[in-house]
Structure formats: structure tokens, C-alpha cells
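ok so for the tutorial part 2 we go from a plain amino acid sequence to predicted C-alpha cells. step 1 is just haveing the sequence, like this:
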Amino acid sequence: MVTDQLRNGYDVVVVGGGAAGLSGALMLARARRSVVVIDAGAPRNAPAEGVHGLLARDGIRPAELLERGRAEVRGYGGHVVPGEVGAVAREDDREDTGFAVTLADGRTVRARRLLVATGVVDELPDIPGLRDRWGRDVLHCPYCHGWEVRDQAIGVLAGGPLAVHQALLFRQWSADVTLLSHTMAPPTGQEAERLAARGVSVVDGEVASLEIVEDRLVGVRLSSGALVSRQALVVAPRMVARAGFLAELGLRPAEHPRGVGEHIPSDATGRTDVPGVWIAGNVTDLVAQVGNVAAAAAAVAAQINADLVDEDTRRAVAAWRDPFSAESEARVCERVTGDRRHGL
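step 2 — the prediction. this is what the C-alpha cells look like for a chain of 344 residues:
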């Protein structure tokens, strides 16, 4: 695998090398910005056989999609570097200064702007055997996996306020859907009526384990010992943003309004409360699919470039007004350094 070397400084450091991070980096590289993607190499969808619902790339293997994305970023002069970000800090106390990004192995790189696209961690129910099936026959998203389990016997594990909604969604793909109340009380009132009207059965009792035969899910075993035959199991993981390294800047995860986990809030353009730090993908939009996060990151990258254009213009105006200013001297030094680097 080709690995790029870190330079001293970039216009933008993109933290996260998934679909969002690579899409943002591609847009920035095409805008002739110096950009590096720091990729920890742990994509959330790695266990899945394919990415679905992505126009012209439906069913593409997650690893292949990322491999193509890295090649495209590099094709426009962007860098993609394996590594994990351990900390981010301002270079000094002023809000208009850049950032020092420190990797877990001690390497440091500087950036004028940050684009955070680190995604989330799925916190799954503590049921023996469940995590090993994640992304195979233990699923969460009907639009990602519903077609692949169509007409099968599907169990929906109740684990939060959206359990009934999730069961009704999967009813679109199969007539054999069972809601497993697990550690929650069985639905009553209007919720029970809606499930009954759609033919969704409800089984009370805690799920103790999964039953696997010849590497295939065949059912779930209740704590009572009863076996509920199922071919697929739907869970609702708690999704938590991978963003601990932002704490020093004052950015911390907040509870998502829908109660599905913790995200880093941002405005509609991807701008966070910390000047110079932008965000895109599942780290801020927990339920977005691959196509959504890629498109959102491209839009955020355009906003970052516009922000940098404004800064570049302010500096140019200041230097034009006073050719002996600090800004003018810095530009001359930058030009001379660049000329030497290119052998001029």
C-alpha cells in the first residue's frame, strides 16, 4: 500500500479516512488546497459484504470503495497517511491561528483548518455471540441490509425508544417480523395496536444468546431456555462519536435529539463552535448512510475552501496596503521557501 509522508503544514488536515473524510479531501484537493487525510484504518462498515444504496456503486465492497477514494485523493495531490490522532491544540491562544495535530505515535502536523470525519463507534448489546455476527445476519439499518434479508424470519431486539419504529420498518421487507422485548416492557396501547395491525408478533423475555448452526443464525435463546427461530436479528446500537481528541479544544459529544447516541453538534454548513474546526459524516449525523456522508463532506469542504479564500484575501489586502507589514514579509518568506523547494 502506498503511504504518503507528512509535511510540516497543510491548509487542511482531515481526520478520518472513510467515505466522508475522503470525499471532503477530494473536494479540497481539487480546489488546489494542500490536504492530508489521517486514516486510523478502522472503518465502521468493514464487516459488511457491500455498500448498498450508493448510486452506480451499489454492492461495492467497503474496502474497495475506500481504496478507490484514496487513489482519487492522491491523484489530485492530496496525501493519505495511516495513523490515529491523539490530540489537537491551537498553536497559540488566538482563535485565528492554526492547529497542531499530534498523532498517537508522536508525529505532529500543522493545519490552518480541521475537517473531522471520524465517524462513530457502535455500542452493541452485551449478548454472547452478537458482535461476531455484526454486519452479517445481525443488522441495524433496513435501507442498508433490508433487501439482503427480504422474506426471511427477522427478529428485532428492543433496546430503546425506536424499537417499535424499527420493527415496523423491517415489516416492509418481510411478513415474518418478531419484536423481542428483551429487557424492556412489551409494547402496550397504541404501539401494540400498530404492531398487531401489521402482523408483527411480540415475544416477551430477555435474550440470553444467539443460536448459530454452520455459521448461520438460526434463532435466539431466551433466558427461560426457549428458542425463537430467526434468520436475522435487528439491533439498535448506541452510536458514540469518535472525537475524544477534540476535548482540549472544548468540543465534546452531546446527546443526539433522537436518543440514539452522542454526536458533535454543528451548524448546517458543518461549522462547529470552535473557529477553524469543521465536521462531517456520522460523527455529527449519526444515522446518515454512505452516500449522505460523502455528499455532506463535499459540501463542508467547499465551505472550508471559501473560508480559506476569505482569509487569504484579508491577508493579501493587508499586504497590499502596507508592503512592509508582517503579512507581506511572511508571504515573501513563503514564496522563497517554495521556490527553493521546487528548485527555483
